[in-house]
Write a structure and sequence with these properties.
This protein has helices spanning about 1-15, 160-165, 210-215, 245-250, 380-385, 390-400; strands at about 25-30, 30-35, 55, 65, 80, 90, 105, 115, 125, 135, 150, 170-175, 195-200, 220, 230-235, 240, 260, 280-290, 295, 300-305, 305-310, 315-320, 330-335, 340, 350-360, 360-370. By secondary structure, the chain is α/β, with parallel strands linked by helices. The structure holds 2-acetamido-2-deoxy-beta-D-glucopyranose (NAG) (6 copies). It is a single-pass type I membrane protein.
């Protein structure tokens, strides 16, 4: 009787579950089920996968696309490995049933863009793909759960920094071996758990000091650094070694691999061997400035102010009334120091001040602009006797007083 029961139970179990997919190994470590199908020559995700699977490994196959049905109903799946396939496409909502998924390994594939909607993800490994862009909302669903993000060895020139800055639980951020040129200041401020930040081999000329770096000890080495510290790797970047990198020079060093790319006298020198006092910035020096400029009322005017310095100075303009000029419907302030007024008015006459500033100081210059009145418009009253031009000049004249703003 007992035997019969056991046979019936076994039969029932076999009927409920799916058979193990061909050439795969299925481990039923009750209550969880792991299916291992690595190096089995798969071209697709097998259809006959038990939907209760908890761990699924499909690495080193020839899967090219992830389809909607591949992981449908796999609500128990915690760990999915698709590394080392040839995946170039993940169809929308392909992962939408994986509500419990914690780790997704997609490294060494051919992905060029990524969008995964997963709410509990902790580990997202996207290393060694061909990613060239990441949409700003790609990580929105797991901003607060993600602990480990690996974007290394891709083609990323831009990273959605706003999103990165909101990964409040992140511990490891690997962005090495990409084409990143710029890290915005303050982006890591809220990443209190960050312990490892790898920016090796990008195109960074500088790395701004971050409030996070000031709060916790930052090490440039992993060996022997205390647990509650951040290890920052930045070798293999074309570092511009001026005073802005002094904070980095003051870190505990690892080895002598990092070199400076510029300025010329520090080029190719080992970062850690350059004395702190050689990390210099040069204050701005005005090299070119518009002379006294005359413009006819209503015509455009262009005021120029060029400054050299290290780092590259920013130029701001102050109006004759002492106001900082910004881009508006009438004025454009260009990063190269040019101020363009596209329609001048008599009220624009006066002394404009340009201020060039950088980390080492500032320098100011004055450009006088004289706007001259248009002779044939200057006197509408005398012209109003002429019936042909009167309406036109009245229009101009009313515009002169009311269209200046
Ligand atoms: C998923 O579940 C739905 C509803 O139970 C079912 O209709 C569908 O066939 C299942 N899909 C797969 C791939 O198992
Ligand atoms: C002046 O420039 C602004 C912004 O570039 C533009 O919107 C506006 O039409 C220009 N005005 C004239 C008269 O060209
Ligand atoms: C003003 O606009 C120009 C042209 O669109 C742009 O290049 C420049 O950076 C802007 N300046 C500021 C201060 O935003
Ligand atoms: C600055 O840039 C603007 C817009 O690109 C250009 O029109 C202007 O000629 C430039 N000025 C100088 C001094 O190079
Ligand atoms: C600009 O400054 C110069 C020198 O201080 C002065 O002679 C000139 O009157 C000023 N121009 C205007 C329009 O205030
Ligand atoms: C402009 O018109 C007024 C009278 O309305 C006259 O007194 C003045 O001389 C005129 N000025 C010129 C420059 O024509």
């Amino acid at each position: 009787m007992d035997r019969l029961w056991i046979s019936l139970l076994l039969l029932a179990a076999a009927c409920r579950g799916q058979p193990c997919p061909k050439r795969c190994m299925c481990q039923s470590l009750s209550p969880s089920l792991a299916i291992l199908c690595s190096k089995t020559g798969l071209l697709f995700v097998p259809a006959a996968i038990d939907r209760r699977t908890v761990e699924l490994r499909l690495q080193e196959n020839f899967i090219t696309a992830v389809r909607r049905k591949d992981f449908a109903n796999m609500t128990s799946l915690l760990h999915l490995t698709l590394s080392r396939n040839t995946i170039s496409q993940i169809l929308p909502s392909a992962f939408s049933d994986l509500r419990r998924l914690r780790a997704l390994h997609l490294d060494s594939n051919r992905l060029t863009v990524i969008k995964v909607g997963l709410t509990n993800l902790r580990h997202l490994i996207l290393a060694n793909n061909q990613l060239h862009s990441i949409s700003p909302h790609a990580f929105d669903d797991f901003l607060s759960t993600l602990e480990d993000l690996d974007l290394s060895y891709n083609n990323l020139a831009e990273v959605p920094w706003d999103t990165i800055g909101r990964l409040t639980n992140v511990n490891t951020l690997n962005m090495d071996h990409n084409l990143i040129e710029n890290v915005p200041q303050g982006v890591f401020t809220n990443l209190h758990k960050l312990a490892r930040l790898d920016m090796t081999s990008n195109k960074l000329k500088k790395i701004p000091p971050d409030p996070l770096f000031l709060r916790i000890p930052v090490y440039a080495k992993s060996k022997g650094s205390p647990l509650s510290s951040l290890v920052l790797s930045f070798g293999g970047n074309p570092l511009h070694c001026n005073c802005e990198l002094l904070w980095l020079r003051r870190l505990t060093r690892e080895d002598d691999l990092e070199t400076c790319a510029s300025p010329p006298d520090l080029s190719a020198k080992y970062f850690w061997t350059i004395p702190e006092e050689e990390f210099i910035c040069d204050p701005p020096v005005l090299t070119r400035k518009s002379p006294h400029t005359v413009a006819m009322e209503g015509q455009p005017a262009s005021l120029k102010c060029k400054a050299n310095g290290d780092p590259e100075p920013e130029v701001h303009w102050i109006s004759p009334e002492g106001r900082l000029i910004s881009n508006s419907s009438r004025t454009l302030v260009f990063p190269n120091g040019s101020l363009e007024i596209n329609v001048t008015s008599l009220k624009d006459s006066g002394n404009f001040t340009c201020i060039a500033s950088n980390a080492a100081g500032e320098s100011t210059g004055r450009v006088e602009l004289v706007v001259t009145a248009m002779p044939h418009l200057a006197n509408s009253t005398s012209r109003s006797r002429d019936p042909g031009t009167a309406p036109l000049s009245r229009t101009y004249s009313s515009c002169l007083t009311s269209c200046n703003a």
